[in-house]
Amino acid sequence: MLKGKHIVLGVTGSIAAYKIANLASMLVKEKADVTVIMTRNATNFINPITFETLTGNKCLVDTFDRNFKYSVEHVSLAKQADVFLIAPASANVIAKAANGIADDMLTTTFLAAKCPKIVSPAMNTNMYENPIVQDNLEKLRHYGMEVIAPASGYLACGDTGAGKMPEPEILLEYIKKAVYPKDLLGKKVLVTAGATQEKMDPVRYITNHSTGKMGYALAKVCALRGAEVTLVSAQTALQTPLFVKMVPVISALDMFEAVKECYEKQDIVIKAAAVADYRPKFISDEKIKKKDGGLSLELERTDDILAYLGEHKTENQFICGFSMETSNMIANSRSKLERKKINMIVANNLKQEGAGFGGNTNIVTLITKDWQIELPKMSKFDTASAIVDEILKQM
Length: 395
What we know:
It is a single chain. The protein is of the alpha/beta class. It has 2 domains: 6-179, Rossmann fold; 188-394, 3-Layer(aba) Sandwich (Rossmann fold). 33% of the residues lie in helices and 24% in strands. It is built from 13 helices and 23 strands. The strands form 7 sheets. The chain has an 8-stranded mixed beta sheet with strand order 12-11-8-13-18-19-21-22, sandwiched between helices. β6 and β7 form a beta hairpin. α9 crosses α13 (380-394). The radius of gyration is 26 Å and the shape is elongated. 42% of the residues are buried. The mean pLDDT is 90.
């Protein structure tokens, strides 16, 4: 995703500056070309040699440093940059960026750059909440820059509150989002994921082996590509993806109601959740049948979410479902595609190594009314990207 991309990291005078060494290392591992620009104050917290060692590029501090090949360095860097992130961003540098002040190497290069710009504030809580700082952050947003909300927690100054720079892993996701093609910009996407649970009694429930990894990958890909994503998620052990609206649910009925509430507003609906097909049919305690010392409960079918979506599909909507089979995968999936009246179905065989629940890879076949494409074994993120590519071709 970041291979060959030129990322410029601006580092200002904050105790959080040391975390950017980890971010620089992560970016290099992703094959990005990384240049770090520091303010003079930042060098009091971390040595420029650290960044030079990690990135293989000269760390710039002085606007008039002549120790580089001939070019106007701040203009040259600004032209090369695919993303410019200032993290940590002090109140001082935020004020300069918001008001067009360019009095050092960092602010000069930042002003000259036309690439996507991201600012991650890090400062004392009282400073961050100061109306002047908030006005300056609003100015940056007005000019099209992404401002990452700081985390809340215990700060180096001893206060507890907002102003803590997010961890490098989160900053990395913002950089990835900035470089990703925005071919879903303006689109609304609904994704369902996870394994629903059907309560039997206060202790037990019916569920399945779905981990939600495929659905979460789809939600992440769509968000990175600019879509407004709603993720209706049943139980998983996964972290909520950044940049999506999460709607947590438990049962198939919960999911059905959540989908019904918002599906009409969506351009694309991807049902990746593994919904339990049956739920206990609850009856009064005195009528519950006893059998071999246990309980024998009547079962009833859960609501068919995919059939409902196909039946109520609007003219411009694209509905994609999943079919997990153990035999006759293509025939069964085509039958499901027709019965559910949807646009595309993603089929896989649970018995095939590298496919199905739990793992980090998948092997799927994309099926529409007129064609089918078998994808090779890929990571679930790459599989999600390929699925979205085909959906866009069909819309």
